[in-house]
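>> received
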Amino acid sequence: MIEFVGTRAAGLAAMQAFVPGMGLRYAQGRNYDKGRGNHTDVSMLSPYLRRRLITEREVVAAAIDAHGRDEASKFIEEVIWRGYYKGWLERRPQVWDAYSADLGADLASLKRDRRLRRDIERAETGQTGLDYFDSWAQELVATGYLHNHARMWFASIWIFTLELPWRLGADFFYRHLLDGDAAANTLNWRWAAGLHTRGKPYPATRQNIATFTNGRFIPAHGELAEVVNGLEASEPDGLPMVQPMRDIQIADKGMPTAILITDEDCCVEDFDLSKLEIAGVATLSCSALRSPLPVSDAVTAFEHRALNDAAARLNHKTATLDTTNPASLADWASALKAKQILTPYVSQGPLRDWLNAARPLLAAQDIKLCEQRRAWDTAIWPHATAGFFKVRKQIPRILEQTLDIAPR
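>> returned
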C-alpha cells in the first residue's frame, strides 16, 4: 500500500520509483483498475503534482530521458491533460462560478429532501448494493485516491444509474481526493455528464468494467443504466464564451514583499526571489474552502505537511494563516510593512474566490497582490479553448517551449 506523504522529497522518491513505468508499461496498463493497493501501472503522482511538490516539467523530463518522446507519449499526454483542464477553466471562469452557485442550491435541497439524504449517504458510504461502486466509494474515503478509470465509472453510475445530482458527486470527490483540483474534478464530472463535450456522456458499461478490472467486478445484466442522453438540456445556452487569460500584477523589485505559500504551488523556490526585499513568509491553509461540508482529515493533513515542507525549503521565519477571515491576509502583510504580496499564480477555484474577496481589503491598506505564472501553464493555456485534441496537436511545441527540446 502506497502511503502519500506531503513533502517534496516523498514526491521525488515516488517519481523516481515510477520512472521505469513511464513508457510502455504505462501505455499498456494505465486503463486497468487492479484495486486498492495494486495500482502498479499508474504513477499515483497526482497528489504531489496537484500541489506542485513536484512539477509537471520534472516528471515529463524524467519520462523523456528514460523512454524517449514516442514511448512516453501516453504518459506525457496524461500529465498535459491536467494543464489542459486548468487552462480550460481559466478561459471559461463562468463554469466554475455556476458550479459553486448550483452546488449551494443542491446542498440546500439535500437538507430539505430526506430521501435524497438517504440515497447520498448510501452512495458515499458504499452501501448501494452495487459491489463495484461501493468498493470505489470505500477506497476513496479510506485512501484519498481512486484510479482514473474508476473515477469515470463512479461518476457515470452516480449520475445515470443512481440518478443523483452530479454536483453532489463532484463535491464528494473534492472533499476526499488528495489530488482534488477544482478544474480537473469539476470538468471530469461535467465530461461524464455530457456537459464538457456536449452531448457525449460517458457510459459505465458491464463489459468495460469487467474488462478493465480484470474480472474483479462484473455487473449484472441490466444493472447499469443505458446512457444515451447526457445532461446538456440542463444548460440550454451551451458553453460560455472563451475569455482572455487573466492579467496578473507583477511584483516590483526592491519593494518590501510578503511571500504567500498556498497548496496551489509548493515549489516557491523555483521562482527568482533574489531581487525582492522579503519582509516575511506565510502559509495559507485553504483545504476547508473545497466545500461547505467537512473536508476529509487526510486532505487537510496532507496540505498542512506540504505547506510546512514548502516553507522549510525557503528557510525563512514563517507565519501560519487560514481562510477563516479574508482580512487576516491584509493584517499580516501590513504588520510586516509589506507593500506587496507575491504568490504563485492561483487558478480558478475556491482559493481564487477567497483572494478576490481579500483584494479590496488589501487595496484599502495600499498592498498589491502579485502573482507569477509558470512557463508550463503559459505554454498550454492559450490552446485550452475547446477539446483536448487542440492541445494534443501542440504537444511538440509545448515541450520545445518548456523543456528546451529541439523540434523534430
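>> The chain has a mean pLDDT of 95.
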